[in-house]
Amino acid sequence: MLKDITLGQYMPGNTVVHRLDPRTKILLTTAYIAMIFLVSSPIWYAIPVLYVGLAARLAGLSLRQLLKSVKPLRVLLILTFVLNLFFSGGTTVLVKWSFITISREGLTLAIHFSMRLVFLVVGTSILTLTTSPVALSDGIEILLRPLKVVHFPAHELAMMMTIALRFIPTLIEETDKIMKAQQARGADFESGRLIARAKAMIPLLVPLFVSAFRRAGELAMAMEARCYHGGEGRTRLRVLRFTVEDLKALLATLAALAFVIIARTLG
Amino acid sequence: MPIQVEHLTHTYLPGSPFSATAIHDLNLTIEDGEFIGVLGHTGSGKTTFVQHLNGLLKPTEGRVVVDGLDITQKGVSLLEVRKKVGLVFQYPEYQLFEETVAKDVAFGPKNMGLDKAEIDRRVRWALMQVGLDYATIADCSPFELSGGQMRRVAIAGVLAMQPRTLILDEPTAGLDPRGRRAILGMIRRLHAETGMTVIMVSHNMDDIATLATRLIVMSKGELAMTGAPRQVFTQRDILRSIGLGVPQGAELCHRLREAGYPLPEGLFTLEEVRDALLALAGRDATNSAAPGTQAQPQSGELTEANAAQGAKAAGGIPQTHEEPKQSVQQAQTQAPLAQDAPQDAAPAGKEGDA
User: What is the distance in angstroms between the Cα of B320 and the nearest Cα belonging to chain A?
Assistant: First the structure.
């Protein structure tokens, strides 16, 4: 049951999108996010829709897989929609019933913001679905490298990300195991009131923390044993390469972004 | 309280691309008071199987009936099942969480809704069963204890629920030889004294060989074999084909037989092989014929270690190069056994003289 989480879970594949350089994909995603925020009216969402649709198609991802990533956000989504709908003021009143007022502006805004959220999540999940966590943090490390000038620890950050990602499945497995072990001793995690439930988590959380710290210590030791000393002078197993396909993807994205900007300036 | 398992099938993540069938159509019955050894290679479905016996996992298909209670049905109180069937996980010391040992052991009984006096009585009883002294250890933090002690506290935590069936998943994994012997001795005593049904999962043949009354051998999620240890361990070739070995005694017996020694079939403990070898040597001594004569032990001085060594020296056992690990292991475990050998060996030695 705990294994169903798709927290940007990587789906291995061999499509054009999978093969792109992670640096390119991070840049594309950044451009895409800019695109979403620059869209001025709901009609122009056609561009990010087309863009994301094409990307998903090239990556061989189904609509279901993409929508699955939106699912955890549904509460936030509904909240965004409702709040914008009722509380954005506006002059063109569509519905007025006792204290509830829905204006045309409110409706537009509500759709606008909800769309933004959905597209934000769908777009970024294409990145995480097609890029392995290791490649992703490699890409981030290189992209952040220029910031070294201001003593930004790019390598350390990327290493921490890699380790954190590496341990998510391990910790989930561990949680599952400890949960079962306590259930075997009659622990009940599923029923009771809020306080009782929170209390029931103690037998789960204490061993989990203990083992997380133990693992951290062991990992640090193992890394030191293999002479890890930070990013200085470290070479990579997989050297990232910029290909023609990367160039094409970047150009196409820039074109789409330019289109959105023009549409915005023209009103 | 028999446990019936009928057509048990378990598939992890059914319907997803990661779907994997861990158990396929398993049928068996476990009777009261049995000591079952569950053997199998890593990934054979042993752990998945035992987790069904107290309802931690639900079968994808089939059913599990514990003491007449079909635990696969809806509305069955799982707490009720878990009172009957206690499960000690692999590396159980990682589940300890309370401030003191006594509190941690009390966790199970407390969940069962027992009163204070009864909980206290059970905590004392359980700690005594695992060979820990209540007075000295009850108020310690479980995190200050040694690894072996932590494991015993964790086992006590399950014992305190006084289940009628105790399942142990690899209880000796990662322990040193002394800790291993202590845990195994404790399990043996529990089984003998309380008449508890014990189900022990292991891939260590030697742990299980002398304890279990019946073995269940699993391979790729299916029941490969079941029967008394003596029957199972004669199927050396089948066991090897599914990635398992046989106990050292059985291996020794097999190789000696291959080398032409007329040992009876089906011996699987080192003691049995020793006695058989002595009997053989005694007979040979009078005939003074077989190559085993050189290994003729001095009466009274005999230990099984040198009995085996003697046989090796006599060229009885082909030295294998594929399995250096096993022979190292053999040498290691023989040493402690040799300590208590002399008193056993004395009468046998006399026999040899006669």
Answer: 35
